[in-house]
Each structure stands twice: as C-alpha cells, then as structure tokens.
Amino acid sequence: MSRSLGDIVGALGGELVGNASLQIARLAPLATARADELSFVAQARYAVQIQTTEAGALIVPASLKDAASSRGTCIVCEDPYLYFARLTQWWKAQHEPAEEPRVDPGARIHPSAVIGDRVSIGPFAVVGPGARIGDGARIGPHCIVGRDAAIGEGTLLYAQVSVGDRCVVGQRCILHPGVVIGADGFGFAPHQGEWVKIEQLGAVRIGDEVEIGANTCIDRGALDDTVIGNGVKLDNLIQIGHNVRIGDHTAMAGCVGVAGTATIGAHCSVGGGAIVLGHLTLADRVNISAATVVTRSIHQPGLYTGMFPIDDNAAWEKNAASLKQLGRLRERVRALEQRTDNDHTK
Predict the structure, then answer these.
(1) Taking residues 190-197, what's their average pLDDT?
(2) CATH number at residue 272
(3) Does a structural domain hold residue 100?
C-alpha cells in the first residue's frame, strides 16, 4: 500500500530533492513520523524539528530547503500546508478507491423521483416524491431526501442525513452523519401565556462544494429560504437558525450558534462555541474568536473578540460585582470632569 516519492511528485508537483524511489507507507505528524513516513513543515518556527524528526521525507517551503535537504530527502513547494492537504486527497483516492455505484434493494425510492447516472443509494435510505438526485451522488444508509428536494452532482451524504422537503444541496458537497437540513425554524407567537407555532414555509438552499459536519442542523426559513453560499465549511454540532444567510467560503468551528435572520458575509471565520445573535450583519472577511458572543452588527473586516477571562470563582465573582458598578463609576467620573472643567473656567 506504500507509494514512492516519485509517484507523489508526479501527481502533485513540487521539487523533489533526494531519493525518488523512497517508499512512503503513511502520512504522519512531524513529531511521531518514522523512517517510512512523510510529514511537512509549513512555517519557519517549526524548523528546529527538521533535525529531530525521524520522518523519511519532509514537505517544506523554499526557505527551509537547505535545512531539510541536509538531513535527507524532501519535497520543496510554495505552500506545504496546501500541498499536504492535496496529498491527503490523493492518498485517500489511492488507498480507498470509489465503490461501484449501486442502489441497495432495501432503499425506498418514490416512482416520481429522478435519479441521475452512477448514483449510489444505501440500505434503508428514502427518496421522496419529486426528489432529484444528481449524477454521481452518493446517498448513505438511512438517509432521507424529502419531497421535491434536490441533491447535486457528485454530492456525498453519509449515513442518517436528513434533507427536508424542497431543500436544495449543491454539487460536490459533503454532509457528515446526522446532519439535518430543513428542520423547522424556531418560530412562535406569544398569545395569552402560550406559544402559537409559526409554520416555516421556506426551505434551505446550499451552494456547491459545501462541507457540513456531523449533527449540524440548518433550519428552513419562515418565509424566504435559509441560504448557505458556495464553499462554506461548517464543523460538527453547529446550529444555523431560520433565514440565516452565509456568504461564500465562510468557515465555522464546532458548536457555533447563529440565530435567525443573521447575515454573515463571505470569507468570514467563526471560532468554536461563538454565538451570533439574530438579525445582525457581519461584513465580508470578519473573523470572530472562539466563545465570543456577537451582540451588534460588524461592518468592517477584522478580528473581533468578546470573552470574559476565566478565573477562580471567588475572584470572578468580585470582578463581576465590580462590572455592575461601572455605570455609576462612569457617571461619577463625568461629574468630576465637569466640576474640574468649571473650576478651570472661573
């Protein structure tokens, strides 16, 4: 199952320095790599590990070529991290070839559904009336594709993914196990101490090359659709509320929550556990730190952070009590400043 460095460079490019016939059995982290394994060094701050790693070969930038070649074989490229990402894709394709398309006899496909060429549908999957499955799509076991829903060409749904009625998933997307697309948004009208359900009449539209992590939920819109742009990457356990719009190539880490009708621009990033409140707007290229609660719209690109530092409980309680006094302290300072200004004008 090993591959030679010559094969790797032939497929992905880069400058090979050293032994092209060296056989690589595995891709490995720098700290634990062995003599038959390949790793990478992306930044100069890790250069010290070039001499200590036991990796048989390294992927390095041009600035580290001399250091890497002095210890042995290496591949020199412009962006080692990107090269490594593409290498993982090539490696997986080499070692896990795609299975032949097959529709399991245990799948339930409505007669009015339209199934493209080279489609795989796993056992106990359900494809509803009027649903459309694009060429080369793969629908895993126990998936549900609802009435009039659409799955784009080359898209992969792992096991137990649910795509609700009228929802659209674009081309070459990956939806990991347990993803729910098109659950009802959280909409209720208060009436005499009770909650009256607002039917969610919109859908979800997901662009091309989107990846959605396990057990993430994207709610359908109340009237208009919830929209996820091209190239968006969502981690596990994320909640996207109804009528949210997320721009192209934005990424969110695990456990992020985005409340209804928020609009997030393109090329943004949201750190794990962060919250974006409803009806807010984030401009393009806004980066939100982990655990931040976004309470106002952000109209300029940049990095934004809003966290209260962790402390032992007794100190935290004192600081929290002090924060409650800030309003009074501010008014007292203003009064003192005004008194001082008046004294100076006399």
Answers:
(1) 98
(2) 2.160.10.10
(3) no
Residue 151 clears pLDDT 90, i.e. is over it: yes
3-state per-residue secondary structure call for the chain: CCEEHHHHHHHHCCEEECCCCCEECEECCCCCCCCCEEEECCCHHHHHHHCCCCCCEEEECHHHHHHHHHHCEEEECCCHHHHHHHHHHHHHHHHCCCCCCCECCCCEECCCCEECCCCEECCCCEECCCCEECCCCEECCCCEECCCCEECCCCEECCCCEECCCCEECCCCEECCCCEEEECCCCEEEECCEEEECCCCCCEEECCCCEECCCCEEECCCCCCEEECCCCEECCCCEECCCCEECCCCEECCCCEECCCCEECCCCEECCCCEECCCCEECCCEEECCCCEECCCECCCEEECCCCCCCCHHHHHHHHHHHHCHHHHHHHHHHHHHHHHHHHHC
Which pLDDT tens digit goes with each residue over 279-290? 999 999 999 999
pLDDT digits (tens, 9 = 90+) for 18-53: 999 999 999 999 999 999 999 999 988 888 999 999
Q: Residue 1: pLDDT above 90?
A: no
- In tens, the pLDDT along 107-139 reads 999 999 999 999 999 999 999 999 999 999 999
User: Is there a contact between 282 and 268 (Cβ–Cβ < 8 Å)?
Assistant: yes
- Do residues 143 and 125 lie in contact, with contact meaning Cβ atoms separated by under 8 Å? yes
Please provide residue 304's backbone torsions phi and psi, each rounded to the nearest 5 degrees: -125, 135
Lookup: tokens for 255: 């456990």
Q: Does residue 272 sit in the same domain as residue 191?
A: yes
Active site residues: 242
CATH number, domain of 75, equals: 3.40.1390.10
Closest to 44 (Cα-Cα) out of 31, 62, 32: 62
- The reported pLDDT for the residue numbered 341 is 79
* Structural domain total, the chain: 2
